[in-house]
Specification:
protein transport, transport, disordered N terminus, 2 strands, two-stranded parallel sheet, signal, VPS50 EARP/GARPII complex subunit, mainly alpha, single chain, rod-shaped
């Protein structure tokens, strides 16, 4: 095995490289060159040599990096022995010598092969030199070809290709340059508010950028364009929010087109509604905040951080109406913008859906339009609800019970106009606003009405019942409080709308949104409404024609021209206007007038007092409130009726209450009037503390009642010289009648305001109360008539007359002349009174009727006192009565003479037979028991027996019994 290994030259070389260094371990161990040569030269037995080689350790034949020095040193024993070391060294030397010799032998053996190989290398070198020459020639040929063909032709083609590529690159670079400058143009477009153009440009740039996305600079530009697009969307959102307050068609068209380009039409609509909601909140907050801070001055309160509801409670009374007006104006702007937005979409949809060449609609646009339409319609109610809630918070934030009436009416007017806006905006009945203003109105009206009733009581108790001088053509429509009636065709229209709609019939048909579509504001109208012309109803000098009055009564008294100034004999001229009246009143005309008609002075001006005028004004104010706020119409009408009730009750209490009515048997107070007076006393008049001891009415009920009024001490009703205060009685009674007439004229208007369920109340009020006003004339003027003529004196005079005479008399009795003189004196007094107060014909008729009735009844009573009477005496009675009638008819134009038959029938009854008398007693119950008994005793007593007389007296007693 080892022999085989040594045969390989490489192995031998390796062995040599190992053994040679081993010999160098130490200088002492290493053999010299001579020794080696000796060893090689010494003939060694091949077998022994082979054994020596075989004795070499196996490790020396390894190919690994072998450190033989380290190996030999490690083999040394712990204790060194020189002899052993030398022996071991010699062994190693022999091994080295054997290897060297073996190697030398092998080299010699391979010498021929080496020479042969060297020859081959030389031949190869020669071939290589020849190849180099061939290559050099080839390269030279290639250089010629390159210069002659490739450089001239292919190079030209290559340059052309490069030029083409560079042209494309230049185009791309120009596009990139344009894209890089786009942001500047986009900024300009946004400043110009050209949102569609900006979005279009941005989208085109994005499309272009995606084409050149392989350039690194473009990838950055793409993200920048995306940011710009988002920025445009933000600015677009801001632009959209601006349309909520001031809608501009061009602006909104651009915004909508921009959203369409973005494909976000539905999103835009959602955003728009959010902006409108926000606009309403911000608007009302800023308006109220402005007024609160203005009125608060330098207060440290942080109003800005307050909730809107709390902020509303800080509004002062002075700034309440201006703030409310500005609030409604601002909300109107928002609602008008929404209305115009809807209008824009309707017109836009009509344009898109109208047939035309080349028009087509994709599914998305139809869906978008449908969505927008539904969203807008739904938004109407939402926006109006927001408006209502904001205004409700404002209304309820302040207690209005202490407001002045005119201020409260303005508030109602503004809210009424706002509710009208709501109805036209979305068909809403504005329940939220109605409830809030109704609550405030009821609260206000309770306080207001209570104060007015107390005020009315004070007026009545201080009223001296003097005539209030008004023009002859006075009409309640001339009063400021009733102006609203002349301005409205329908009671459902608010006063401010009436002012707006009075400009023409054409405008009445237009809605507020049509009227104020482009300019103006419906909430500016009430200011103009408030500043109306002042009323002119009072006569400048108290009476319109005092001179006429003098003329009339000088003519009555003197019946001559001597005392009448010449200028007054001519047709009189109206002092107010300077014009002659339509119908001239000359002296002849005046003389021909009926003397019982005391209408000629004061040019027939209405009779009313300051208190009446105040009640009429109050009614006008109440009706204004009712007209604007229908939900409390019944409460208001009920209060209006209480004003009339209290006035009527006061006039009755002051001038008509008398215990003698019952005994008069004239039926002065009708059952209807008595029922009315009892009702008023129970429902409205507060009983004095001493009168209702032990009775505790409800607190609320007591609050609604008013103490009974007391007549002013300045009014004297017991002086015979003034006919027992006839002037005051006429003014009081006729002012009540005038008030009733005004109520009658207002009935149809009140009826339209009244809820259907409550209309019976109004009808009953008119039929049971208003219509009874004129019935008060009877009891009131009866008191004057009962005292104006001395009926007792007449009875005494009649008692002194002898009626059992035996011859027919041609001369009437003195008592007739005395009675007629009393009537003449009464007529003169009436004329005196009428110098101060016009006495209307119905009043003079009632007075004359009462006096004549009382005179006739006194005559019958006087005839019933007769103890003895003959037929001639009956004839004398008839003569006296006929004389009385004849003279009386010259004093009065009252026809027929009242109770004429009452006297004549009684006188004629003296001639009746027994049977006729019995029937007479049954049929004529108007005569008293005494008067009937006198007929039986005096007249029939002479020619009927006692039994028959007793029978007739029993019949009289039966008739009288039910009365008792």
């Amino acid at each position: 095995h080892r022999r085989n290994k040594l045969k390989s030259p490489s192995k031998l070389c390796l062995l040599l490289s190992i053994f040679i260094p081993v010999g160098l371990l130490t200088d002492t161990l290493a053999p010299s060159q001579e020794e080696l040569r000796e060893l090689r030269e010494q003939p060694i037995d091949p077998q022994a040599e082979q054994e020596i080689i075989d004795s070499i350790e196996e490790v020396y034949f390894s190919n690994d990096a072998f450190d033989m020095v380290q190996h030999e040193l490690e083999k040394l024993p712990p204790e060194l022995n020189l002899q052993e070391l030398e022996e071991y060294r010699d062994k190693l030397k022999r091994q080295q010598a054997a290897v060297s010799k073996k190697v030398a032998d092998l080299i010699l053996e391979k010498q021929p092969a080496y020479v042969k190989e060297l020859e081959r290398v030389t031949a190869l070198q020669t071939n290589l030199q020849l190849a180099a020459v061939i290559c050099t020639n080839a390269r030279r040929q290639l250089g010629v070809a390159k210069e002659g063909f490739t450089g001239a032709s292919l190079g030209l083609l290559a340059n052309q290709r490069r030029r083409h590529l560079l042209t494309g690159l230049l185009k791309s670079l120009r596009t990139i340059k344009t894209l890089q400058r786009t942001d500047v143009r986009l900024s300009e477009m946004l400043e110009e508010e050209d949102y569609p153009g900006a979005i279009q440009l941005c989208l085109e740039c994005q499309k272009a950028a995606s084409t050149f996305k392989h350039y690194s600079c473009i990838s950055e530009l793409n993200s920048k364009l995306q940011d710009t697009l988002e920025q445009i969307e933000e600015q677009l959102d801001v632009a959209l929010s601006k349309t909520c307050k001031h809608f501009d068609v061009a602006h909104y068209t651009k915004v909508q087109l921009a959203y369409t380009l973005l494909g976000k039409t539905q999103t835009a609509m959602d955003q728009l509604h959010m902006h409108f909601t926000q606009a309403i909140h911000n608007t009302v907050f800023q308006v109220v905040l402005g007024y609160v801070e203005l009125c608060a001055g330098n207060a440290d309160t942080k109003f800005q951080k307050m909730q809107y509801k709390d902020l509303c409670t800080h509004i002062t009374l002075d700034s309440y109406i201006p703030c409310l007006t500005d609030l409604c104006k601002a909300l109107w702007e928002v609602m008008l913008s929404y209305h115009r937005t809807m209008q824009w979409h309707e017109e836009h949809d009509n344009m898109e859906t109208s047939p035309g060449p080349g028009k087509w609609h994709d599914g998305d646009s139809v869906v978008d339009r449908s969505y927008v339409k539904k969203k807008l319609e739904h938004g109407l109610t939402r926006i109006w609800q927001d408006v209502q809630l904001k205004v409700k918070a404002y209304i309820l934030g302040t207690d209005m019970s202490n407001f002045k009436y005119d201020d409260f009416i303005v508030v109602l007017d503004v809210i009424s106009r706002l509710m009208q806006v709501g109805e036209e905006f979305c068909g809403s009945k504005s329940e939220v606003l109605q409830e809030s203003i109704k609550w405030q109105s009821v609260n206000y009206f309770k306080h207001y009405h209570r104060a007015r009733l107390e005020e009315l009581r004070m007026f009545l108790e201080n009223e001296t019942w003097e005539l209030c001088p008004v023009k002859s053509n006075f009409n309640i429509a001339q009063l400021h409080e009733f102006k609203f009636m002349g301005q409205c065709r329908s009671p459902s229209v608010s006063p401010s709308r009436q002012a707006a709609s009075s400009t023409g019939l054409a405008q009445e048909e237009l809605s507020l949104f049509q009227l104020y579509l482009l300019e103006g504001n419906p909430f500016e109208m009430h200011i103009e409404h408030k500043e109306e012309e002042t009323e002119d109803v009072l006569a400048s000098n108290g009476y319109e024609s005092d001179e006429l009055e003098k003329c009339v009564y000088q003519d009555y008294d003197n019946d001559s021209d001597s005392d009448v100034p010449e200028e007054l004999k001519q047709d009189y001229v109206d002092e107010q206007t300077g014009d002659a009246p339509l119908k001239s009143v000359s002296r002849e005309t005046i003389r021909s007038k009926k003397k019982s008609d005391y209408n000629l002075n004061k040019a027939n001006a209405p009779i009313l007092t300051n208190t009446t005028l105040n009640v009429i004004r109050l009614v006008g104010k109440y009706m204004q409130m009712m007209n604007i706020l229908k939900p409390i119409a019944f409460d208001v009408i009920h209060c209006v009726s209480q004003l009339f009730d209290y006035y009527l009750y006061a006039v009755y209490t002051f001038f008509g209450r008398n215990d003698m009515y019952e005994s008069s048997s004239l039926g002065l107070i009708s059952s209807r009037l008595r029922t009315t007076l009892n009702r008023i006393q129970e429902s409205l008049i507060e009983v004095a503390a001493g009168e209702n001891a032990g009775v505790h009415g409800a607190v609320e009920e007591r609050k609604e009642k008013v103490p009974s009024p007391h007549l002013s001490q300045l009014v004297v009703l017991t002086n015979s010289g003034t006919l027992y205060g006839l002037a005051q009685r006429v003014v009081a009674t006729e002012s009540l009648v005038f008030l009733a007439e005004q109520f009658e004229s207002l009935q149809s208007h009140l009826d339209t305001m009244m809820p259907a369920a409550k209309k019976p109340f109004l009808q009953q009020f008119y039929s049971q109360t208003v219509s009874t006003a004129s019935e008060l004339r009877k009891p009131i003027y009866w008191i004057v008539a009962a005292r104006a003529i001395d009926y007792e004196q007449m009875l005494l005079l009649m008692a002194g007359v002898k009626w059992d005479i035996r011859e027919i008399m041609s001369q009437h009795n003195v008592y007739v002349d005395v009675l007629l003189k009393e009537f003449e004196q009464f007529n003169k007094r009436l004329a005196d009174v009428s110098r101060h107060v016009r006495i209307p014909l119905p009043v003079s008729n009632v007075l004359w009727e009462h006096c004549i009735r009382l005179a006739n009844r006194t005559l019958v009573e006087g005839y019933a006192n007769v103890k003895k009477c003959s037929n001639e005496g009956r004839a004398l009675m008839q003569l006296d009565f006929q004389q009385f009638l004849m003279k009386l008819e010259k004093l009065t134009d009252l026809r027929p003479i009242p109770d004429k038959e009452f006297v004549e029938t009684y006188i004629k009854a003296y001639y009746l037979t027994e049977n006729d008398m019995e029937q007479f007693i049954k049929n004529h119950r108007e005569y008293s028991m005494k008067q009937l008994a006198n007929l039986v005793n005096v007249c029939l007593g002479s020619h009927i027996n006692k039994k028959a007389r007793q029978k007739l007296l029993a019949a009289i007693d039966d008739i009288d019994r039910p009365k008792r």
